[in-house]
Amino acid sequence: MKRLAILVSGRGSNFEAIAKNIRAGALDAEISLVVSNNPDAKALETAADMGIRSLSLPSKGMDSDVYAARVVEALAPLDISLVCLAGFMRRVGKPLLDAYPMRILNIHPSLLPAFPGLHVQQQALDYGAKFSGCTVHFVDAGMDTGPIVKQAVVPVLDSDTAETLAARILIEEHRIYTAAIRLVLAGRYRIEGRRVVET
Per residue in 26-57, pLDDT tens? Predict the structure, then answer.
């Protein structure tokens, strides 16, 4: 059984969707640990309710590399196949990247490379984009720059606010994240430069 570690900072809706897909048999994996850098994250409650082991590892005031080393220490005994960021609002430090090279996935609520970083739905609206969406990508040392595994397109409506657009994108996030994890765990891909090619 392939083992996942999920890193969260907030409500953890993508974590919850992954966990539900595992329970439904749509993803052959287990979540070994949920790590939150925010001790007040709702995702910690969700993990407890679902009987999934979790760890509050606060990051406030801590250097990214020091924090990453602490995460690596927590994951080391667990034989983790893949680390999944699910609303993890910190840059991933070098020790974690080195420990899990091209084995860390993130989901971002835009069609990368458009609108990296934060407040992406408002960025799309301000820019006048007609389409937005979400992207699952491998994590590298850059900001939302790793090779893209899956994307889904969501039209931007004239009536949209950042909140309504985010809600429609979130539905697609829950769908494609599990699909991307399934693909990566099965090893049915190769990376050619920046391209992830399904095999």
Answer: 999 999 999 999 999 999 999 999 999 999 99
Paired tokens of 2: 């392939």
Kindly give the pairing relationship between strand 131-138 and strand 104-108.
antiparallel
CA distance 116 to 10: 19
Residues 12 and 42 sit within 8 Å (Cβ to Cβ): yes
Its CATH class, for the domain covering 106-199, is alpha beta
Which among 108, 119, 137, 174 is annotated as catalytic?
A: 108
Query: Is residue 138 very low, low, confident or very high in pLDDT (cuts 50, 70, 90)?
Result: very high
Domain coordinates of the chain in residue numbers? 1-101, 106-199
Residue from 133, 141, 136, 29 nearest 85 by CA: 136
Q: Is 108 labeled as catalytic in the residue annotation?
A: yes
Domain 1-101 has CATH 3.40.50.170: yes
